[in-house]
Fold these 2 entries.
Entry 1:
Amino acid sequence: MIERLFDEVWNGRQFDKIDELYAPDFVADYRPFAPLREGSEAVQGMVERAWETFPDYHEEMLAIVVEGDQAAVHLRITGTQHGAWGPLPATGRRVEFEEMILFTFASDGRVARQRGIADNLTALNQLGNASGA
């Protein structure tokens, strides 16, 4: 299931798979760096924004630990910034940074919650914005 999330949705942009993999009451929590996002339609918005900013966007799963209804995933994100990323205008520079995500699954096996933290400071440094502003 986790491999399908990355292969089909995040890397493959197969939006028709979202409802199959994500619960309708899905919650994405990346606070304090992003607003709380709710609903499976939020997934498509997040994927679209990633690809608009980084047209060669790719997530590589480095490790996964599964216990009960949860999975912890360590991944590497790569891409070349050709669109604005928050307040940072396009730089044309390539980034490589890591993220940790804790997925919680609903009783039907779909993702109900995604809580993540990304190493945005590393990405900002690579984009030439070491201050993070």
Note: The helical segments are 2-10, 18-21, 40-53, 120-126.
Entry 2:
Amino acid sequence: MTEKELKALASQLSCPKGDFGLEVAEKMNHTNSGMILSTIYNLDLQKNDQVLELGHGNGNHISEILKQATKISYFGLEISESMKAESEKNNTEFIKKNQSEFTLYDGNTLPFVDAFFDKIMTVNTLYFWKKPTSLLKEMYRVLKVGGTCSITFASMSFMKTLPFVDSHFELYDAHKIKTLASKVPFTSIELIDKNELVESKAGEYVNREYIIAKLTK
């Protein structure tokens, strides 16, 4: 890919839009499926849980969340209008049943009352947080006492090998996420190390190391 193409891809990864954004989102959903499913299963979802996801992309994984237990309510937040529209199209059945709803937000402030959610998840969005401490405080605010927040991201060492990763990405490792999380009064910070084989754009399989940061209020 040319430098111009790499920059365009990096922009779409942070906020997919238009036809190219839809194409990128579909590839992201496929490439990130292992990370997404691992995050879902680590949420330990229970009956009647209220679940929030930041940056849900095209929403093809939401059915997997809703089948983890009965009467789960899913709320998705996106900064991308294209992804909100695509998720609504892909989850019409769940919207009609009042099992899911999708909302645009500014990437900083969560439009919910205090202590509303049992679980919060977000996968591969951490690199693009403009105000990470403020956003994490917002996530803490809307969590119920005893609730958990799972933040999943590829490790800094892996991300540095990707040609499209540029200055728009803020990379994290275990120490850096612990430092960020310690600024908010979570009762526990658990880091779960994971790795998986993923296919690169060159058609080769590479080992992706990633972390699920599980924060409990």
Note: Residues 18-31 form the longest helix (14 residues).
